[in-house]
Amino acid sequence: MTIDPETTALDTPGCRNGQVFLDSAGSSLAPARVADTVVDHLRRETEIGGYRAAAEREEDLEAGYSVFAELLGCAPEEIAFTDSATRSWFAAFRSIPLKENDRILITEVEYGGNAVAMLRRAEAVGASVEVVPSDPSGEVSPTALRELLDERVRFVSLVHAPTNGGLLNPVREVVDAAHDAGALVLLDGCQSVGQISCRADETGADFIAGTGRKWLRGPRGTGFLYARRSILDDLILDEIDHHGGEWTAPDRTRARDDAKVFELWESSIADRLGLIEAARYALELGVPEIREAVRGISGRLREGLARIEGVRVHDLGVRHSGIVTFDVEGVPAPEVVAALARADVTVTVSREASTRIDMERRGLTEIVRASPHYFVTPQRVDRALELVEGIVRGARNGGA
Ligand SMILES: *Cc1c(COP(=O)(O)O)cnc(C)c1O
């Protein structure tokens, strides 16, 4: 069934005041039932203590692995919960053996947090990090990738949907090429899970890292990781505690043989429950339905912006996510964001440091990022467009 933005807006306290919320790529608006789940659990902890409160929700916590398995197309034993996408990504990255002369391949839209970690570890062990060129549309080129792959490549880091624009990278082709060369694929699904299908069974990725607060509309400080069970034996598992492993004798340990090996014992149970509730909400709406709705509403915004003289849209690629980036001639991005915020339109700035390779290549430093989810009505997008037109006019008059 088609998603009705009015109905989903009613579930969303942040939509009730008329605000135009266009920042689901940053930190989205949670549905009321997600916020209630978190707050109710915090209250329960104040009544009976965190351990008993968690015990009461044990079944729901366990069911969370199945919920994410359904969302990501894998087995429940292949899911780990963490406190951010970066934490998930790091857990996977640190587990991949890397030695001198090994190679890591990344794409032009690599995310800043991943890049810093890769460059530093590569430098420490004497490995290299190399960029796979994109094709003219901006998608990573599977042909260029195949040329770069050899037996020294340990893994390919692939960002499904970058943080700074509407690009969607081809995942299956990259995974197939990498696997042919014996390399693993670490898929950053941070900007895709919750708005578009990003599944282990369809993509073949070895790891998928994601976050709660963006398109899934979960609480901040939550993340999740898919890890293919059949590769666990080949990984370094040296940052695990007595949840990810077992202290079997004073001088002996054993690691778990499922993805929970990547979890730590302690976590925010309230946030975890909220994250699970957010994933349930997404599954009830339907991932294909969400994709269609986001495609529609972000397409309206992207096309509307492209029609405004003085606005440049910066989205690469042929298929687009719900992220729309642009700038206004003569007006720095933070000023556009501030002007829109004064009219209760929430967008954000995407900066060079988040996606340095792509931004430097295109000569961009700061751009405005608008990311409407399915709960944004066409009327609200049109209001944002009118306001952007007003900013263009104001800049022209001011500059004359
Ligand atoms: C936001 C983002 C991340 C990091 O997510 P956190 O939950 O903040 O750790 C990683 N990759 C991409 C592409 C992102 O947009």
TrEMBL record:
Q: What is its EC number?
A: 4.4.-.-
Q: Spell out which residues are annotated as carrying N6-(pyridoxal phosphate)lysine.
A: 214
The UniProt entry's coiled-coil ranges are none
Q: Which InterPro entries match?
A: Aminotrans_V_dom, EgtE, PyrdxlP-dep_Trfase, PyrdxlP-dep_Trfase_major, PyrdxlP-dep_Trfase_small
According to the entry, every stretch annotated as the Aminotransferase class V domain falls at 20-383
- According to its UniProt record, which cofactors does this protein need? pyridoxal 5'-phosphate
Q: Does the keyword Transferase apply?
A: yes
A Pfam family that this protein carries is Aminotran_5
Kindly report, in one word, the top-level EC class recorded for this enzyme.
lyase
Q: Which reaction does it catalyse?
A: S-(hercyn-2-yl)-L-cysteine S-oxide + AH2 + H(+) = ergothioneine + pyruvate + A + NH4(+)
Keywords carried by this UniProt record: Aminotransferase, Lyase, Pyridoxal phosphate, Transferase
Is Acetylation one of the keywords?
Answer: no
Q: Hey, which pathway is this one from?
A: Amino-acid biosynthesis; ergothioneine biosynthesis
Which branch of life, at top level? Bacteria
* Molecular-function GO term, any one: transaminase activity
The family classification in the record reads: Belongs to the class-V pyridoxal-phosphate-dependent aminotransferase family. EgtE subfamily.
> What job does this protein perform?
Probably catalyzes the conversion of hercynylcysteine sulfoxide to ergothioneine.
Q: What is this protein called?
A: Probable hercynylcysteine sulfoxide lyase
Q: Which species is listed as the source?
A: Nocardiopsis alba
